[in-house]
Amino acid sequence: MAKVVVNTVSIGANAKRVRELAEVNGVEIAAVTKVVCGDPTIASILLNSGVKEIGESRLENISRITNAGIDSDFLLLRLPERSKFREVLDNVDTVLIGDLDSLSKLYELSSETGQEVNFIYMIDTGDLREGVMYYEAESVLEKAFEIAGENLEGIGTNLGCFGGVIATPKKFEILLSLGEFLRKKTGYSLRRYSAGNTASLPLLEKGIVPKGINHFRLGESILCGTDVTNNREVPGTLQDTFTLYGEVIEIAEKPSVPIGEIGRDAFGRIPHFEDKGKRIKAILDLGEQDVLPSGLTPLVGGCEVLHASSDHLIVDVTESEKSFSVGDSIGFRMSYGALLRVMTSPYIRKVYE
């Protein structure tokens, strides 16, 4: 059975490194565990490193953590369907929200049940994912304060995840300007400005986060040591946090180009092959259902990931630095996207070291 080995020491070191970098800049962090499906072992490591808040997008993952006996403040990154709003109040301390009607319904339910919850209203500063567009936000924030009062804890934004927009001080200053507008209008000062994710880390590293921005939501930088939006490894972090191993279930010399007319593969893609003559190809016991093949980097030099179907990963081992037989394993580093699928797959065994 394919497995992923979790390096708990490296994850803890990354969490400590990123937390300390944030603290130097007057910023608190929520450690985001959605890529590991709220894995309780990993959540415990993050909290033991000094993180005080866990960020999650799914209530199921929060329940997974709390059912393991782990106590934390929880930040819900994405609302569930409205039939689960009561579960939000049962499990969550703070909610990112970008819709006035949802805010009204959650706050009304909170008042009825006596279960207090705080809100961070999301502002779209250009990445075009959640939140009200920044140029339409003033009237919306006034209304949000009318609804939630002091339970409107803050405002936030997200960059990089959908549109790939790069974080800049100017983007963050939009939030500060909106907060100042609200203060002048109502006399109320927001307590949290949640402006950053991993894509925003360069601003922390350079010390150019505008004063007043005091909260980041960080997952990839801690769990992978990478920053895909800026196409880099995060300075001072480790990248050996997760290692995927697949077992060779078949190995043979075969042509490098399929024989016959080429149509589409099992996922509707038209595959392309370079004619290299006959090659030695290993089939591993995992596939697209378990991992994003394009996000895999073999740990053995000379190996090349060629393609995958649902349950078969094809690796060219012709020029491998090591010879392989059926029953051997090949290890891989993973991108954030590959890790997401691996941790979601029930077919990949999780091993903690």
Automatic annotation (TrEMBL):
GO molecular function: alanine racemase activity; pyridoxal phosphate binding
Protein name: Putative amino acid racemase
One Pfam family matching this protein: Ala_racemase_N
Segments crossing the lipid bilayer: none
Matches recorded under SUPFAM superfamilies: PLP-binding barrel
Species per Swiss-Prot/TrEMBL record: Mesotoga prima MesG1.Ag.4.2
A GO term from the CC aspect: cytosol
Record's signal peptide: none
Alanine racemase N-terminal domain segment(s): 9-222
Cofactor: pyridoxal 5'-phosphate
Alphabetical keyword list: Isomerase, Pyridoxal phosphate
InterPro entries for this protein: Ala_racemase, Ala_racemase_N, PLP-binding_barrel
